[in-house]
Design goal:
Blueprint: E1 2-8, H1 14-28, E2 35-41, H2 53-61, H3 77-80, E3 83-86, H4 89-98, H5 102-105, E4 108-110, H6 131-158
Length: 167
């Protein structure tokens, strides 16, 4: 079982959306017994809350039902997950700080690394923006989740220790 954790600042927009989009793609690929996904936030400010209602509204229009309850990243996540994927540079830096050792730092990736169509460096936080910001985030996440699933399939076929090549 490959375990993937998506991380953003509060776990109420980007990472919870990435979790549900990826879960949908995994089901479509018939890999729900091979890949497990979850999401978390750097901060615990929204702990126990559903995703932002605006993000839920935009996601449901695309067929994604966001029901994850926000939770913070925990030390044990670095041991329990094979891939820990941050949405932006700040998330990546925070994850590196939280990582308990060097081996677990190598599990940290940037979501935009998996994009195939969108040329972006990070997934922007839509929280303080308008509707187009939420749509943009969903576009980026759909692209990145497709690329991530391709990468995981390649990893499984290679049977190597390192899930994704970090170049």
């Amino acid at each position: 079982m490959i375990k993937i954790l998506f991380v953003c600042l509060g776990n109420i927009c980007r990472s919870s959306s990435a979790e549900e989009i990826m879960r949908t793609y995994i089901k479509r690929a018939g890999m729900e017994h091979e890949i497990e996904v979850d999401s978390a936030g750097i901060l615990s400010y929204h702990k126990g809350e559903l995703p932002d209602e605006r993000m839920r509204a935009h996601a449901i229009r695309r067929g994604y039902n966001l029901t994850h309850l926000s939770r913070p990243v925990l030390t044990e996540d670095f041991y329990n997950f094979d891939l820990i994927i941050g949405m932006d540079d700040r998330n990546i830096a925070d994850l590196h700080e939280k990582a308990p050792d060097l081996a677990t730092i190598h599990k940290v990736f940037r979501m935009a690394e998996f994009c195939r169509k969108n040329q972006v460096d990070y997934v922007p936080d839509p929280y303080y923006g308008g509707s187009q910001g939420f749509e943009n985030v969903l576009d980026i996440l759909e692209d990145a989740c497709e690329g991530l699933l391709e990468g995981v399939k390649a990893w499984k076929s290679r049977g190597t220790e390192q899930p994704i090549n970090k170049e």
